[in-house]
Amino acid sequence: MTRIQRIITKQKETTLHIAAAANQEKFVRNLLRTMIYDNPCENLTAVNEIGNTALTYAAATGNVNIAMAMLDINSDLPNLHSGVKPLYMAASLGHRKMVQLLYSKTKEVVREWEEDEQDDLFITCVEGDLYGVALEMLEVNPNIATATNKDGETVLQLLARNPSAFVGETQPCELF
């Protein structure tokens, strides 16, 4: 790692981890520029103690510009299998644009995730009103329609409790 991009916390977070977590877009861009000369892919794939990359931290902030800057250097970042997946992090925090970006970069890999991981992401998207990605996932894998959350509720049950999920006019009920 470059002198500026190094481990700086007890949790083995790098300068890039902290800058992304602090949502410091300009600093991240400057840091990435300096990293270009010193093995940028290795620097971007550095993981902290629990296996998270700086992209996971960017996903947590929802800053799409930071994520795009990282992805411009290493487009495989969202597909690393360690720690919390950036896509799941963004979905769990309801960052719609970040979820759309990361899903567009990972949809082929998501199809290969374990069934329970796909189910968790699908449920998380529905619970977070991220219906576009949830629908894309359902079109690819209809089996996730039966996924349940930690309380044993299906997606249909979740949607039934959320009338705002259904766009359109209500039809009048005619009894006779």
UniProtKB/TrEMBL annotation:
Q: Name one Pfam family in it.
A: Ank_2
Looking up InterPro entries in the UniProt record yields: Ankyrin_rpt, Ankyrin_rpt-contain_sf
In terms of SUPFAM superfamilies, this protein maps to: Ankyrin repeat
Report the protein name in the record.
Answer: Ankyrin repeat domain-containing protein 17
Name its species: Quercus suber (Cork oak)
